[in-house]
């Protein structure tokens, strides 16, 4: 409850209660941005740092930004039983950064300070955003602790790849606070962690087929829908590989992003990532054709008529996935989802494509002026191979993504 266990008065609207745990890593300063995003979006945030974390960011900073008291000690305000009440009253606990030490203590149920006590008493969703050196993240002990936490239902966001402390670079960087906030926001909607332990491959964006070093054949896809699918899947506990074709968006927290340009590159990346995947969602707009030859230098404009560009077919990746499964050619996923962007005869064209491609679900949406491409919202009809048809009304692309994952989760073995 707001005010940590006391019901709000009749003239007060209850704000979602979030506990922000902060452990002792250099990335602790980035948690200030996460705290700002949480408070400005209407959440009542209580910061619970470890004692060592206060050596990176002090108590006055957390108190001023949150508007709530801050302590790392179970012995302060003992009459309020903070080591129990804080966790009991939370709607969400997020630990960012989560060090290897805190992950180990959480996995083994240790309770030596206020944060670890809070983790033991919380019965709400818990999100960990680890940050540490690559060697620590990859150590078998850390991997086992992460697996244990995930088995218990916690969301552990894989760290990002980038610059670490000093000159080191690798996986272990705290994801962008805005992306951690997006995961927290989706978790607070109450969606279950029904994709925990699942490996998902998602394609996003639009491929570009080179004409020369400057020009290309492409399409209008921004990648927003594919990225929404990735974010919502992470918030539901999944391990996600995102194959992004020419997308200018920040990497979603906890997602492994593979960047490609052409349809041929996208096909290779999807097939490589598909090993061990439970589902593949082909949300990218893949070019049907590419130039048969690419000029090695920029084609100059002259007074003569330009030479025609001869096109050849690109691989049909979605149909290939269906063929692989039908023929038992491993690896292949249990569930295959395609997207169909149509301008007219939307449902008729969608049903024909569903039958032709051999996928389990086909998300059919109408595109055109201010529809689908580059917009924050979307509407669609999902057609299923078993005859089910689900209409998803226009709304945020994250809501459409969650509706797709609802259908996928029901079909996973």
TrEMBL record:
Q: Where is the signal peptide?
A: none
Q: Has keyword Magnesium?
A: yes
Extract the GO molecular function terms from the UniProt entry: FMN binding; metal ion binding; phosphopantothenate--cysteine ligase activity; phosphopantothenoylcysteine decarboxylase activity
Catalytic activity, as annotated: (R)-4'-phosphopantothenate + L-cysteine + CTP = N-[(R)-4-phosphopantothenoyl]-L-cysteine + CMP + diphosphate + H(+); N-[(R)-4-phosphopantothenoyl]-L-cysteine + H(+) = (R)-4'-phosphopantetheine + CO2
Domain Flavoprotein: start-end pairs: 18-186
Task: Give the keywords, sorted.
Answer: Decarboxylase, Flavoprotein, FMN, Ligase, Lyase, Magnesium, Metal-binding, Multifunctional enzyme
Q: Which stretches of sequence are listed as region Phosphopantothenoylcysteine decarboxylase?
A: 1-199
Binding of CTP: at which residues? 288, 298, 315-318, 339, 353, 357
Instruction: Give the EC number(s) under which this enzyme is classified.
Output: 4.1.1.36, 6.3.2.5
GO BP, sorted A to Z: coenzyme A biosynthetic process; pantothenate catabolic process
Q: Which GO terms describe its cellular component?
A: phosphopantothenoylcysteine decarboxylase complex
Q: Which Pfam families match?
A: DFP, Flavoprotein
DNA/pantothenate metabolism flavoprotein C-terminal domain spans which residues?
195-409
Region annotation (Phosphopantothenate--cysteine ligase) maps to: 200-413
PANTHER family for the chain: HOMO-OLIGOMERIC FLAVIN CONTAINING CYS DECARBOXYLASE FAMILY (PTHR14359), PHOSPHOPANTOTHENOYLCYSTEINE DECARBOXYLASE (PTHR14359:SF6)
Q: Name the protein family.
A: In the N-terminal section; belongs to the HFCD (homo-oligomeric flavin containing Cys decarboxylase) superfamily.
- Function of the protein: Catalyzes two sequential steps in the biosynthesis of coenzyme A. In the first step cysteine is conjugated to 4'-phosphopantothenate to form 4-phosphopantothenoylcysteine. In the second step the latter compound is decarboxylated to form 4'-phosphopantotheine. Catalyzes two steps in the biosynthesis of coenzyme A. In the first step cysteine is conjugated to 4'-phosphopantothenate to form 4-phosphopantothenoylcysteine, in the latter compound is decarboxylated to form 4'-phosphopantotheine.
Looking up NCBIfam families in the UniProt record yields: coaBC_dfp
Query: What is the name of this protein?
Result: Coenzyme A biosynthesis bifunctional protein CoaBC
Species per Swiss-Prot/TrEMBL record: Streptosporangium roseum (strain ATCC 12428 / DSM 43021 / JCM 3005 / KCTC 9067 / NCIMB 10171 / NRRL 2505 / NI 9100)
User: Per UniProt, what is the name of the gene that codes for the protein in this document?
Assistant: coaBC
